[in-house]
From TrEMBL, chain A:
ABC transporter domain ranges (all copies): 4-240
Compartments where found: Cell membrane
Organism: Baia soyae
GO cellular component, one term: plasma membrane
Gene3D superfamilies xref list: P-loop containing nucleotide triphosphate hydrolases
Membrane-spanning parts: none
Any single GO BP term: iron ion transport
Topology of this chain in the membrane: Peripheral membrane protein
Name by which UniProt lists this protein: Bacillibactin ABC transporter ATPase protein
UniProtKB/TrEMBL annotation, chain B:
GO molecular function: transmembrane transporter activity
UniProt superkingdom: Bacteria
InterPro entries assigned to the protein according to its UniProt record, in alphabetical order: ABC_BtuC-like (IPR037294), ABC_transptr_permease_BtuC (IPR000522)
Gene Ontology CC terms, in alphabetical order: plasma membrane
Annotated protein name in UniProt: Bacillibactin ABC transporter integral membrane protein
Main subcellular localisation: membrane
Length: 277, 335
């Protein structure tokens, strides 16, 4: 069942068409990951779904309701978006920032209710940042900070979570950490997640559904097994990928790639290996 | 959390006392010395034919109160602008708001010379709005135009353009003297009738500012985040700009151009009370008012018995502080 639907959307940036006639169904309770080269419109699509950008043409439906007709505060109770590289004053303390996640639920903004406090506590716990709850943001590492932002989005207690490149600039361990938090939310807290990722192996491992974009078009949509293939990756990224299955969890892994413009010999090699897998 | 709110609460609770103190000192010190007892009598046993009483009521008291109000108005405007644009260089004097005001006032002096105080304030507010619309309009048109440096450049360029245009119009129609007399900070000759109007106009601006103050904190996390949190960002921005227009327009109409207060006071205030605008806005008003009133008192002593222009004082204190800010906080006050 679709929880978030984009219908014939068109987006422009400074006169240029980023995409037009774009349709996408986000399945409820699943993790959907958008992949594609830089500038293909991934972030724009995510922002359109999160009503940060209003589509010039077309509509976005959240639980079958036109997002344009819903009050923004009402949307914020059901859907949130964490932008790429959010920026906050460095003096702000972790818990204080997370408490802003309760903003759409609060009638009296100056007092936190018991429910607010519980949600904040839960968000701190689930993102493993309890030890630095009183630290100022400026004193944290990039990875820690990203988890704090994620916690703020979680405190908002929405069923839909949109994440724009949540692992960018993080080291390997923190990337995994963030994605495992996302996985946990999806599995145990019925959270529908749509995210933009650059790492196709992360996309393969953590998503139920992958959306492949290029030049403002959705090239293909499908499960990781269907999407992380030589053929599709060539269409999306113009690369010749070498793919095998990770024996640890059975998800496809791209362990190497060449530019699709490279010599034919390499291409042959790739094909052979693909057959082998 | 409890001890964090101690400083802003301390500032707010001691404010009335400090206001009375600076007004008292401001009345006390001047070209003609006045005895403390005379001030008491001027308030409680006023005699119209007593020269000192007359000076206090028509000149010294309006001046002291005017300095407090203008300082507060400009500081609150600056705090609002810095919060909503997330730009630590934003302030009414850098963003073309004051120059817009001066421009429209100049036009009025040329074409409709006999303006009442009320019309003067209105014209000044229209000018503030004009300046702000041009600068932010350009900022929105230009790519990344709202980034700190670009907006400061756009604001300075447009501000300079508007003030040059004002100067050209003034000299062409030979009203230069009137105009420069008018807009060069004239704290020492506040028109009491204008002051009476400046209070209600300013109060509207302050109420608007306090109304949006909590939302400004959310907005200062970035536009995308505040939309994601369900804030009506456009509405908040319009309300904030309206507050800025009321406050800056009134301040300029009352005393002309005074630089740096709107820029440095919000920084000082955040340094003292943190970054929650619920506290920053009222405290900036208090600190700004006191700052300008104290500068005004000091301006009478630097070159005694002659008065030093207040702009000199605010710049002498403001510029080093501003450079200090760039040096220490230039890159790292946001993460």
């Amino acid at each position: 069942m679709s929880i978030l639907r984009v219908e014939n959307a068109e987006a422009r940036y400074e006169g240029h068409i980023i995409f037009e006639n774009l349709c996408l169904d986000v399945i409820k309770g699943k993790i959907t990951t958008i992949i594609g080269p830089n500038g293909c419109g991934k972030s724009t699509l995510l922002k359109t779904m999160g009503r940060i950008l209003k589509p010039k043409v077309g509509k976005v439906y959240l639980q079958e309701q036109d997002i344009n007709t819903l009050p923004t505060q009402e949307i914020a109770k059901r859907l949130t978006l964490l932008p790429q590289n959010p920026v906050a004053p460095g003096e702000l303390e972790v818990e204080e920032l997370i408490s802003y996640g309760r903003y759409p639920h609060r009638k009296n903004i100056s007092k936190l209710t018991t429910e607010d406090k519980e949600k904040i506590e839960w968000a701190l716990e689930i993102t493993h940042i309890l030890p630095y709850r009183n630290r100022p943001l400026g004193s944290l590492s990039g990875g820690q900070r990203q988890k704090v932002w994620l916690a703020m989005a979680l405190a908002q207690d929405t069923t839909v979570l949109l994440l724009d490149e949540p692992t960018t600039y993080l080291d390997l361990a923190h990337q995994l950490d963030v994605l495992q938090i996302v996985e946990n939310l999806n599995q145990h807290h019925q959270c529908t997640v749509v995210m933009v990722l650059h790492d196709i192996n992360h996309a393969a491992r953590f998503s139920h559904e992958i959306v492949g974009m290029r030049d403002g078009n959705i090239i293909a949509t499908g499960s990781p097994d269907e999407m992380i293939t030589v053929d599709i990756l060539k269409q999306i990224f113009h690369i010749d990928a070498r793919i095998m299955v990770d024996p640890f969890n059975g998800s496809p892994v791209c362990f190497g790639y060449e530019s699709a413009l490279a010599e034919e010999g390499l291409e042959l090699l790739t094909k052979k290996e693909n057959v082998a897998t | 959390m409890v001890n964090k709110n101690r400083v802003p609460k301390l500032i707010i609770f001691t404010a009335p006392l400090l206001f009375v103190l600076v007004i008292f000192l401001s009345i006390l010190f001047g070209a003609k010395s006045i005895e403390p007892m005379t001030i008491w009598n001027a308030i409680f046993h006023y005699h119209a034919d007593n020269v000192d009483h007359a000076i206090i009521q028509s000149s010294r008291f309006p001046r002291a109160l005017g300095a407090l109000l203008v300082g507060a108005y400009l500081a609150i405007s600056g705090a609002l602008m810095q919060g909503m644009t997330r730009n630590y260089l934003a302030s009414p004097s850098i963003m073309g708001v004051t120059d817009g005001s001066v421009f429209v006032i100049t036009l009025c002096m040329v074409f409709i010379p006999s303006l009442s105080s009320y019309q003067m304030i209105s014209a000044s507010m229209i000018g503030s709005a004009l300046g702000a619309i041009i600068v932010f309009g350009f900022g929105n048109l230009v790519r990344n135009g709202l980034s700190p440096i670009r907006l400061a450049i756009i604001g300075t360029v447009i501000g300079t353009f508007l003030s040059s245009l004002s100067a050209a119009i003034a000299s062409y129609f030979q009203v230069s003297q009137n105009v420069s007399f008018w807009y060069n900070a004239r704290l020492h000759q506040i028109d009491p009738s204008m002051l009476k109007l400046a209070i209600p106009f300013g109060v509207i601006g302050i109420i608007l500012a306090l109304y949006v103050s909590k939302s400004i904190t959310i907005l200062s996390l970035g536009e995308d985040i505040s939309i994601a949190l369900g804030q009506r960002t456009k509405y908040i921005k319009v309300m904030s700009m309206l507050a800025v227009i009321f406050l800056t327009g009134t301040a300029v109409a009352l005393v002309g151009k005074i630089g740096f207060v709107g820029l440095i006071i919000p920084h000082m205030t955040r340094f003292l009370v943190g970054i929650d605008y619920k506290w920053v806005i009222p405290c900036a008003g208090i600190v700004g008012g006191l700052f300008l009133a104290v500068c005004d008192i000091l301006s009478r002593f630097i070159n005694y018995p002659f008065e030093t222009p207040i702009g000199v004082l605010t710049a002498i204190i403001g510029v080093p502080f501003f450079l200090y800010l760039i040096r220490t906080k230039g890159g790292k006050n946001v993460v």
